[in-house]
Amino acid sequence: xxxxxxxxxxxxxxxxxxxxxxxxxxxxxxxxxxxxxxxxxxxxxxxxxxxxxxxxxxxxxxxxxxxxxxxxxxxxxxxxxxxxxxxxxxxxxxxxxxxxxxxxxxxxxxxxxxxxxxxxxxxxxxxxxxxxxxxxxxxxxxxxxxxxxxxxxxxxxxxxxxxxxxxxxxxxxxxxxxxxxxxxxxxxxxxxxxxxxxxxxxxxxxxxxxxxxxxxxxxxxxxxxxxxxxxxxxxxxxxxxxxxxxxxxxxxxxxxxxxxxxxxxxxxxxxxxxxxxxxxxxxxxxxxxxxxxxxxxxxxxxxxxxxxxxxxxxxxxxxxxxxxxxxxxxxxxxxxxxxxxxxxxxxxxxxxxxxxxxxxxxxxxxxxxxxxxxxxxxxxxxxxxxxxxxxxxxxxxxxxxxxxxxxxxxxxxxxxxxxxxxxxxxxxxxxxxxxxxxxxxxxxxxxxxxxxxxxxxxxxxxxxxxxxxxxxxx
Length: 474
Hints:
single chain; alpha/beta; Arylsulfatase, C-terminal domain; disordered N terminus; hydrolase; Alkaline_phosphatase_core_sf; Sulfatase
């Protein structure tokens, strides 16, 4: 090699080495992305890998094998807006004021502008924030107050000043249009919503793909880490609004095979089971598309993916449909978290409550200093690295009301305990899920010693959450 060529190659190597060193330094400091996917009314039993409901969820099954499944996760107030309020603020419903769903029947219930939210914290940490789908934290303004929630207006335009630092907005407040959804996109004005002739989870998955791919930096600042929230509406009612391709998966299934819970009313469950499971299959399909896009982007290893839901679905169990109650079908939610090489796949029984989600995820991302001081939840991020820490013995259940009506409860590894108020009188419920997994035998008055222990646990929660009606449940 000639001297000149040698010097050239050496100089190139030095430059290349310096560049590589700089790249390594940059990579070492790189913050993880966050992909938070939370469909509405997706009960934990609908995860195919649990072996409970006869659902078809190949993408979630595959994802679970690479993830940590927190099987004791719950929705403390199993209803859309209260869950979202807890998730975004890290505070309990009586602190946020979001104790029930946001709509024009109760115009004072909405996410306050002065709350520092999960998205605000991420923005403060230098993230680009995207939000897709159902928001349901605002209330229609300038409309008559409805007498009842069934007659209320639910959907509304959410102006940028009430979006809490979200940079890319492709969302709506609350409208159950699964097959012809509409969205306000980015800076669109109040009268500029856009309709799409698609199944909403698939449409939102395609938008998520575009956001993650970010060709030419058109969707986001590529120099920033991203946090994308995808809030799919299905499998929320109306269940029948689902593409035929997913309905066909369950068309020939008998109700006997579909409804395998002995606490379920077959007639009530039979009206919705096939369509609900079809919706679940559609959500799984959409989830798979997002995961494929993430892998193709090269960001898989540097992205924390969370799959969860705002609450479950009773689907005929205990002669009920919907949510809002302490039974497993309503109270428990999926919580599956993946971060390759950082989180060991498996199962964990942490009793994580919704207000804990923001502090825990910020802690996991190395962003604890951005957790709002007002947050009431705890940071359990060390659980994800396998460290031994103090854990809660129970999770807390809330069904708001007043001194006459309402319910509070706790759920431990084995027992579910509830104090219900009816006309100011207390009714107790205690279920031993080890011997009675479907919660069909109330043993509160036979196992008074256990009920007493659970009551003490409940008392701690009432005090720690500053419950304004604590004395009525003591």
